Amino acid sequence: MSDFTLHDKDSAPSASKELLKASEKDSGMIPNLHGVMAESPELLEAYQTLHKLFMKSSFNNDQTTVVWQAINVEHKCHYCVPAHTAIAKSMDVSDEIIDALRKEEPLPSHELEELRDFTLKVVRSRGQVTDDDLETFYKAGYTKKNVLEVILAVGQKVMSNYTNHIAETPLDKPFEKFRWEK
């Protein structure tokens, strides 16, 4: 059983208080993940920064969701799959894409399937993809910039997925309806 504190703006270390205020401003709440991460202001700040940077990537909403959820599902993250389901819905990603990612079923386009496949190759090989993997990714219309953006997302999701595994982060009420188990 985890004994990590789920911090709020009052209990958080002083260096995390402003970060939690920013979380609340951006999300309308302080997600439990951020409450746990607040124990380490450095981790919370790094996570928030990587999230903002990945949101500025060249991927569209469908592609962003594919990358995030491919990693979340691969890492069996009980918290991030439901959280990113809610985020995907807020980004107007279709239920067809959301459900296919959650169930590990085929995606509706070759382009999205290649993106998921490449993302999983990066995760599973710990970045040691082959030249053939890269060539297949490029033939699907992706670029070297996209390769590096996938790596950015992996860094972000490792922070959250691993934190959730270790801290056993409880789901926030808005994410409960999207509860998921591999």
Radius of gyration: 16 Å
Contiguous low-pLDDT stretches (5 residues minimum) are none
Shape: globular
Count of alpha and pi helical runs: 9
State the total count of DSSP E strands: 0
CATH fold assignment of the domain at 60-178: AhpD-like
Taking the alpha carbons of the first and last residues, their distance comes to 20 Å
What is the H-and-E element order? HHHHHHHHH
- CATH architectural name of the domain at 60-178: Up-down Bundle
User: Biggest β-sheet: count, sense, barrel?
Assistant: none
Question: Can you tell me about this structure?
Answer:
With 182 residues, this protein is an all-alpha fold. It has a domain of 119 residues: AhpD-like (Up-down Bundle), CATH 1.20.1290. Helix content is 64%, strand content 0%. The chain has 9 helices and no strands. Helix 1 packs parallel to helix 3, helix 3 packs antiparallel against helix 9 and helix 7 runs antiparallel to helix 8. The radius of gyration is 16 Å and the shape is globular. The two termini are 20 Å apart. The model has no long low-confidence stretch (mean pLDDT 97).
